[in-house]
Amino acid sequence: LHFSYYCLKKQHYMCLKGLVLFAKNQRKEGEELAKKGLYKNMKSFLSWHFYGLLLLKKQEFVQAKSAFKMAHNNCKTDLQTLRDICALEAHLREFDGLVDSNRRLLAERPQVPSYWTGLGVAFYLNGEYEEAKNVMDSLLISFTENLKEGLKISEVLQFQALCLIKGGLYKEALEFLEKNNKGFREKTVFLQNKLTCYQGINDQEKCLETLEELLELHPENMDYYATVLENKGISTSKPLSKEKQELAETIISDYLKKNPKSLSLKLLLLKYLSTD
User: Fold this and answer.
1) 3-state DSSP assignment of residue 25
2) Residue 47 Ramachandran class (φ > 0 left, ψ -120 to 50 alpha, else beta)
3) N- or C-end of the chain: fewer Cβ atoms within 10 A?
4) Distance separating alpha carbons of residues 276 and 274, to the nearest angstrom
C-alpha cells in the first residue's frame, strides 16, 4: 500500500500501515510503526483498535483486550470495538465481563435481535440460566415477526429448554417442552430433552417410553439401546451376573425381532452373550 505523506501524519493511518506491514510478514517494522502512531495520540480510538488487531494477530489476547478497551473508552459509540471485546472475553472465558459487554451492546442497539441472543448466551456461559431464559423470553415477545421462520423459533426454544435443564428445573422444563412442542423442528432434540428431564426426576417408566420413540427414529443408535439397558438395571460398563446377562440377551433379542437386520443390536447381543 502507498500512503501519502499527509496520511502518515495521521496517527491512525500510521497504526493501520503498521498492521498491514505486520500482516505482510514485516513484523518488526509493522509493530514499530503501529506503536509510533499510537504514542503520537493516545486518545485516538482508531489507533488503539488497529494496535489491538495487531496484538490479536500476535495471539496476545489479554493485551489485545486491553487495547480494545482503551479504544472503547475513547469512543463509547464504536460498537465494532465492543464486539471485539466480547469475542475476546468469550475466548478467555471471562464470562462476567462478557455479560457486562453484551449488556452495553444491547443498551446501544436494543432493536438488533442478535444482541439479545448474545446476552442470553453470555448469561448461560456464566451459569445464570434463569436470566438467560428470561432474555430469550423477551426476544420472542419483542421480535416475533423477525423470528417467524420456524428454524429460528425452534433454536430459541431449544436454548430455553436447555437453560431450564441446566438449572436443574426438570419439571418446569417438561412443562415448557409440552407447551411448545409444536415449535420444535427437530423431533430428536425435543425427545432427548424430555429424556434428560425424566432422568433428572428419576421417572424410569417415562424414560423408557421416550427411548422407544427415539429408537423409532434412530433404530441403529447404540447409545439409546445402552440407556434402555441401564434403565432396566443392566450396566454396560461393569461385569454382570448370569441373571443380568440373560435379561440383557432377552431384551436385545426382543428388539431384534422388530428389527432383524440391525447391526447395532447384533453387536450388543455379542457383548452380552453367555460365555458358558
Assistant:
1) coil
2) alpha
3) C
4) 6
Instruction: Report the amino acid identity of residue 71.
Output: A
CA distance 158 to 62: 33
Give the Cα separation of 141 and 129 in Å (integer).
19
Three-state secondary structure call for residue 46: helix
Query: Model pTM?
Result: 0.83
Classify residue 128 as left (phi > 0), alpha (psi -120 to 50) or beta: beta
Are the CB atoms for 198 and 206 separated by under 8 Å? yes
Residues of the chain where predicted confidence (pLDDT) is lower than 50 = 1-9, 275-276
> What backbone torsions phi and psi does residue 232 show, to the nearest 5 degrees?
-100, 15
- Cell 432422568 sits on residue: 199
208's grid cell: 423408557
Provide the pLDDT for residue 2: 46
What is the spatial distance between Cα 105 and Cα 75, in angstroms, rounded to a whole number? 14
Cell for 1?
Answer: 500500500
| Count of C-beta atoms within a 10 Å radius of residue 38 | 22
Residue 248 to residue 235: CA distance in whole angstroms? 10
pLDDT value at position 11?
66
Residue with cell 435443564: 165
Question: One-letter amino acid identity for 101?
Answer: S
